[in-house]
Amino acid sequence: MGVSSNGNIDLTLMDKVFEKYAAQKGTLIPILQAAQSTYGYLPKEVLKLIADRLGVSLGKVYGVATFYAQFYMERRGRHILKLCDGTACHVRGTPILVTAVEDGFHINPGETTEDGELTVDIVYCLGSCAMAPVAILDEQVMGRMRPEMLVRQVKKYLKSAQETTES
Fold first, then answer.
1. CB of 142 within 8 A of CB of 157?
2. CATH top-level class for 11-67?
3. How far, CA to CA in Å, does 82 sit from each of 67, 111, 113, 126?
4. 94-122 pLDDT tens trace
5. Nearest CA-CA partner of 74 in 111, 32, 27
6. Model confidence pLDDT, tens digit, residues 40-65
7. Beta carbons of 71 and 36 less than 8 angstroms apart
8. Dihedral, CA atoms, 152, 156, 157, 158, nearest 10 degrees?
9. What whole-number distance in Å separates Cα of residue 15 and Cα of residue 10?
10. What stretch(es) of the chain map to CATH 3.40.30.10?
11. Per CATH, which fold does 79-166 belong to?
């Protein structure tokens, strides 16, 4: 996703984005969205490029990017596990699920595994309270989760996704 194996960021991928928004005003957020879509997160080099091309301060670009929860400043995993911690889910066991994920994958919420495969996020209410506690793994909703079941299903999913990628 716009990042080479040696970690270099291909800034030329932003050329089409800047062309698309060249004649428009107030395009910082759409440009940040396009950048994140391209790179999977907002690398510092890209934020600097956006500031330079838009003629605004890096502080303004950084301020907008950190204000909105939709933007990520760190590389994210290829797969995203969201654990709901809304009231119903919290009462029915999300804290135990969080501990199971921490133990099973050696990461805390908001972190990504060392291999870059999995990022875990805490979210607040997914609207599936009747199935609490709820987790979402890459858009797949999993309800009435128990710690061992969640870890087992996530490991199975990651293994299956890796096998699909390798073939």
1. no
2. mainly alpha
3. 20, 12, 14, 9
4. 999 999 999 999 999 999 999 999 999 99
5. 111
6. 899 999 999 999 999 999 999 999 99
7. yes
8. 100
9. 10
10. 79-166
11. Glutaredoxin (3.40.30)
